[in-house]
């Protein structure tokens, strides 16, 4: 899943105000400036109700920078790309779990996987992408679904030309994902045959096995920036990412994702998201929030 904004924080006491915080330190003007920067950098929309979120997430960065006010911090990050990146990362968090929106994985297993295995048997490369992979549960769900319940077949798949890209804008999410280690309680959604074949557990920890980890490459990527991928994909998961974008940003992203698919490739989006704009002409609906490149 993508790095998602925390929607649960309380709103400030008054317009642009923070209880117990001087408006000289943080006020409505500062929030609006941060919102503009985050939108420009990552396409993320921060409506006024997120003023408390911005303060709570960025106050540690303001303090660690040695600055006293948000205005000074904002002025600093305008000229510092690395600090702007840290600002965006601070305003994202993880919210995902294994086999989330299970109908997507049912479709992948029943419809897409057999074709991918045929491709591999014909010595053709398979490429898949989890765009907005967050802490890795999505990409490892996809990887384990590809390897499947037959261990011998899964090992053959793992030895063939398969590459799965997991990208996210947040460094902390990618760091967790790359470790492939999860609390055992959080892995309850894993189907038992896949869990038994491709993971191991010690105490309260579950570890993704080497066959699955070896297929996944983790990369930091801003979906609003340049995409360095050289090959198109047979499968793209980009779920619960667009809900934080405005409509023009959503439509640009959908078109880019569609063009990044091979003809006949599949795009999976979140249950509350919709395809619209120029990319709609490139995609056929084949299931709930499942699309195929024409």
Global Rg: 21 Å
What is the class of the largest domain in the CATH system?
Alpha Beta
**Major beta sheet, strand line-up:** 8-4-3-9-10-12-11
* Average pLDDT taken over every residue: 92
Residue windows where pLDDT falls under 50 for at least 5 positions: 1-15
Order of helices and strands: EHHHHEHEHHEHEHEEHEEHEEE
Total helices: the number is: 11
Which structural class do the helices and strands define? Answer: alpha/beta
Question: Care to describe what's here?
Answer:
- The protein is globular, with a radius of gyration of 21 Å.
- It has helices at residues 28-42, 51-64, 70-78, 81-90, 102-121, 137-147, 151-158, 171-179, 192-198, 210-213, 247-259, and strands at 3-4, 93-94, 126-131, 162-168, 181-183, 199-202, 205-208, 216-220, 233-238, 261-269, 283-287, 290-293.
- Helix 1 runs parallel beside helix 3 (70-78), helix 1 packs across helix 4 (81-90) and helix 5 (102-121) crosses helix 6.
- It has a seven-stranded mixed sheet. A three-stranded antiparallel sheet has the order 5-7-6. Strands 1-2 form a two-stranded antiparallel ribbon.
- 41% of the residues lie in helices and 19% in strands.
- The chain is built from eleven helices and twelve strands.
- Strand 11 and strand 12 (290-293) form a beta hairpin.
- It has two domains: 3-93, Chemotaxis receptor methyltransferase CheR, N-terminal domain (Chemotaxis Receptor Methyltransferase Cher, domain 1), CATH 1.10.155.10; 96-293, Rossmann fold (3-Layer(aba) Sandwich), CATH 3.40.50.150.
- With 294 residues, it is an alpha/beta fold.
